[in-house]
Design brief:
Largest interface: A-B, 80 and 80 residues
Distance between the termini of chain A: 41 Å
CATH class of the largest domain in chain A: Alpha Beta
Number of domains of chain A: 2
Number of strands of chain A: 12
Oligomer: homodimer
Shape of chain A: globular
Chain lengths: ~250, ~250
């Protein structure tokens, strides 16, 4: 029977800067009596990748520039936090009281450039967490470590939760991809009745991220690693950048 | 172990107008040796619901009005098809050569109001398929039929594939919901370190639809029904309308 199993890997420890994330993931997988299989896709929450990469910023160290002060006044946000967000951004997409939507330097549009205070230890209230420097590269490194250590080729999707322009609620999206196509171009395939499909480029890595989001949760029970087993996908080395719709291609606005 | 299994129900027959869809689904589930379990969520592709509801339109019967002629000229689409799309729409969101993005009468924004030529039998080349009249009501009816026939309370999500403003590739989204929350409002829950989460309203039904999309595919092997087993969710009777971000709430544009 055609089925996919999503397995939340238990016992992933709290990740700290400098931790060997891929090694800790393999240890958690083994400790749970799980074995990775060829074709598995590992969905990994961005936060643990960012923490392992030490992407913390202490707001006390930040001196806001004039644009940050202006945007802070317009949004009601901490000017130091705004400064950090702007440094992570290409441009401001939307700005209003309590809201700062930007195009992240990686190209995608999201709130606050993914800069996050939640799931950062309260012991340092001033600390915020940035996204990984290069999530596609992080995904490749994890995939290659696992291949080296276990001989098993897995796909890796580094995930985050994003809001959406026309729909309420956050959904999982892919920030980094390795070992699978991010976009599955099915244009030209016949449908049930032999028509040639139009416009059927599937956001495969985003659907993987959304599926994993069903298990990751956002809160106390958060499980940052999900094994996606049984997924059928074509060979290909996608990148999360493949999923970014440039403003020029934005047909929806 | 915390896990979710996605099971593509095999052997769902081609659905025709007037077919008792819920009954055929139960027959396919039984024929596959599957038994529905309390808490299962059934993801059902919109197309089989629309077909069972006889939502076909013969373009030969359509006389385009002046706005349809104007939009057809601007997009290069068949004026009769455009007339059908406009009848299904509240307003035109975006219009250019080859592209017609509208706000569907149900409130969501999508290409061509979901009016589709693919997976419509070629025997009548002029036929197009509209979305269900009221997908939330269709989901409720299927859920109630299954509860009546089997005594098992399942969730139902009627799914479609949508493109997105800022990201390439289509992903599964929920058009109709019954027996589960469409939005899971987790604001106020503590995170790993006891912070109170902000802005964490999860698009649960959309993540279910995206996960099911991994198995449904778009093409010849399409499987229109997926059982989502093991999903943890709070009690609640959501509706797909809960997922629609009104223009007033659109922070992204």
């Amino acid at each position: 029977m055609n089925q996919i199993t999503l397995i939340a890997v238990p016992g992933v420890p709290h990740i700290r800067p400098g931790d060997a994330l891929a090694q800790l993931l393999l240890q958690a997988v083994a400790a749970a009596g799980l074995a990775l299989q060829p074709g598995d896709v590992l969905a990994i929450a961005q936060k643990v990748v960012s923490k392992a990469e030490g992407r913390f910023v202490c707001l006390a160290d930040i001196r806001p520039g004039p644009e940050a002060e202006r945007v802070a006044a317009a949004t009601g946000k901490d000017p130091r936090l705004v400064e950090v967000i702007l440094r992570e951004s290409q441009e401001i997409s939307r700005l209003r009281q309590g809201v700062l939507i930007v195009r992240h330097r990686l190209g995608f549009v999201s709130a606050n450039a993914g800069v996050d205070r939640s799931n950062v230890p309260q012991t340092d209230d001033e600390r915020v967490l940035l996204l990984p420097v290069d999530p596609d590269a992080s995904a490749v490194a994890i995939r290659e470590y696992i291949l080296r250590e276990t001989g098993v080729a897995v796909g890796v999707v580094i995930t985050d939760s994003h809001g959406r322009p026309f729909r309420l609620g956050t959904v999982g999206v892919a920030l980094g991809v390795a070992g699978l196509p991010a976009l599955w171009d099915r244009r030209g395939e016949p449908d049930l009745y032999g028509y040639t499909l139009q416009h059927t480029e599937v956001g495969l890595a985003d659907e993987v991220a959304a599926a994993a989001g069903l298990l990751m949760g956002q809160a106390a029970e958060g499980t940052p690693v999900v094994i996606v087993r049984g997924l059928q996908f074509p060979a290909g080395e996608g990148r999360a950048a493949d999923l970014i719709r440039s403003q020029a291609l934005d047909l929806y606005r």
